[in-house]
Amino acid sequence: MFDFNSNEGYFLHLIKSALKDEQPKEKPEGVSWEEVLKIAERQTAANLCWFSIEKLNNKPDGELYTYWQDVYAKAASKCLKQMMEIDLLCNEFTSRGYDIMFLKGSKIREYYPSPDMRTMTDIDLLVKADQRQPIREIMKSLGYEVDLLDDGQVDAFKKKPVIYTEIHYDFSAENHIYHEIFTIDWDKLVETQTPHIFEMTFEDLYFFNIGHYAKNMHNKGMGIRAILDCYILWNAATEEQKQNILDKIEKAELGKFHGNLLKIMDIWFNNAEDDGKLDAVQEYLITRHTFGDEKTLRVLQTMYAEQTSSNTEYLRKKIFPSATSLYERYRLRKRFFILLPFLWLRRIFGLIFGGKEKWQDAKSQVDVFKTIEQEDIDYERKIRQEFGLM
């Protein structure tokens, strides 16, 4: 799909050369370093490109070279600080007897040729739900500021300037489409040599990572990171592990989605023949941001709300949700009619007294919804159908 002589094609060549530790080819004449950098930053992969750029004879000129070098240096510095923070969290939690497991990028980056090739926005770790309150206190004692405490799936904390940590009590929210499939069972985790630190089997690490990206596509879209992680982990797997992974994925009915990830991986990194059947998905991945974007989020919300319901109708349902939605919002498993008036009052007071930030967020949502056209919904549906998620 992406010719080597295009900006997108050369960007993929740079990351391929970095991951394979190969000598990259020099930039074709028609390729713009500025455009390659835009793609790389949108995909949070500029630091990964740097591993190839520093090997070139003809590097970017002047300020662009300095800027790119600085991007890599900041990413490497953040990686080191995150690794040091992970050691700190391990010591603080395990010394108190709390069981923990690190999730997502914190484990996946260990399989990259160099951990600083794989950026992480935050540190993700899993703890047991009954440890929530004491762990909140520990995080505050370590100098973290609270960013989110929602009594649900995750608490989030930040420590300036670059550390952001999410404490998970489950892998996904209870009301999420993939929650039942991707629920972590502590009894199936593997004990490490360090007491109270657990990890998944390799097969589960891979399987849950596929679930994470399926969730991202369902919620907000995604960029190329799924392909990068898939490439790294799949090539680290034994044949027996691969078969176990495929069995798990087929059972979860995500076989087509995963198969397409592998197909794109082979096209981009293993010179596999491209039959053109995934052109739309490839273009989608490389033109989107790593974690999707606000408009895609709102388009998908509109699409899932009775598929093609109007933006006005969707907003009405967001402001005045159904009784079922209210029970789910406040995580009430038993449903008593007498509770509904109190749930409505809580919802209304929450909207009225939610503060300036909530009102600004609501206004932002309305502004985005005004830009949504039917063709936006049709496009997102087409991509998910082609990817195997609908």
Walk me through this protein's architecture.
Strand 6 (190-191) and strand 7 (197-199) form a beta hairpin. The longest helix is centred in the first third of the chain and has 33 residues, at 62-94. This protein has helices at residues 7-20, 33-42, 46-53, 62-94, 105-108, 132-141, 202-219, 225-236, 239-251, 255-269, 279-287, 294-304, 311-319, 323-329, 340-352, 356-370, 374-387; strands at 100-102, 123-127, 145-149, 154-159, 163-168, 190-191, 197-199. Strands 3-4-5-2-1-7-6 form a 7-stranded mixed beta sheet. By secondary structure, the chain is of the alpha/beta class. The chain is built from 17 helices and 7 strands. 28% of the residues are buried. It is globular, with a radius of gyration of 22 Å.
Beta percentage is 5-15%
Low-confidence region ranges: none
Largest sheet: 7 strands, mixed
H/I helix tally = 17
Rg, Å, rounded = 22 Å
**Can you tell me the overall shape?**
globular
Widest sheet: strand ordering: 3-4-5-2-1-7-6
Q: Compute the number of strand runs.
A: 7
